[in-house]
Amino acid sequence: MTATPNSGAVSPQLELARKLNLLLDVVVAEGNTPHTYRQLEAGLKERGLTLSRARWAYMITGEGPLVTDPALLTGIAEFFRIPPEYMLGSDGDLPERVDAQLAFVKSLRVARVVSFAARMLGDVSPETLQSITDLLESDTPDPPADSRDHE
Predict the structure, then answer these.
(1) Is the pLDDT of residue 43 over 50?
(2) d(CA 29, CA 27)
(3) How far apart are CA 11 and CA 75, in angstroms?
(4) Residue 105 CB-half CA count within 13 A
(5) Residue 86's closest CA among 141, 15, 25?
(6) How far apart are CA 113 and CA 84, in angstroms?
(7) What residues are paired with 10 via a beta bridge?
(8) Which helix (H) or strand (E) holds 117?
(9) What φ, ψ does residue 64 adopt, rounded to 5°?
């Protein structure tokens, strides 16, 4: 995650993007195919909500204006079958517990990828394997929305 200049804190836009990308990662980590924008759009439409492709793109990249619409954030939470408080950032400890669970599932996914890479690469030095692990575990931005949007 990128810190805002001089503050050391993550911007609210990047925090929302982190949460959304964790949700997207968890779907894949649980063995399912990634959700496409069209699936999310349809799920929100069933709830009487709309989400443009452009808005979704800046929500998952952390760029652009901060989305604070409670109805939209609740709809996204319901689509991913998580408590709305996680997306709304309530003061309770529920978002922290959900975040920890999602991060744990993501770490399991990273461990599977590292294990697969180690098997495929054969005689890899411990330093190289550690570099791969560090890269996978880093909080680098996820790919742009269109690379997640397999329609």
Answers:
(1) yes
(2) 6
(3) 22
(4) 16
(5) 15
(6) 30
(7) 3
(8) helix 94-121
(9) 90, -170
Q: pTM for the complete prediction? A: 0.62
pLDDT band at 61 (very low <50, low <70, confident <90, very high): very high
Report which residue type is found at 149.
Answer: D
pLDDT at 124 over 80: no
pLDDT bracket for residue 6 (50, 70, 90): very low
Biggest CA–CA distance in the chain, Å, is 54
- Cα–Cα distance between 149 and 151 in angstroms, integer? 6
Q: Please give the C-alpha separations between residue 68 and each of 15, 108, 112, 115, in angstroms, as whole numbers.
A: 12, 31, 35, 39
What average pLDDT does this structure show over 100-108? 75
Which residues are bridge partners to 3 per DSSP?
10
Q: How many other CB atoms sit within 10 Å of the CB of residue 53?
A: 13
Closest CA to 137 of 119, 120, 118, 113: 113
In whole angstroms, give the CA distance from residue 26 to residue 32.
9
Q: Is the pLDDT of residue 36 over 70?
A: yes
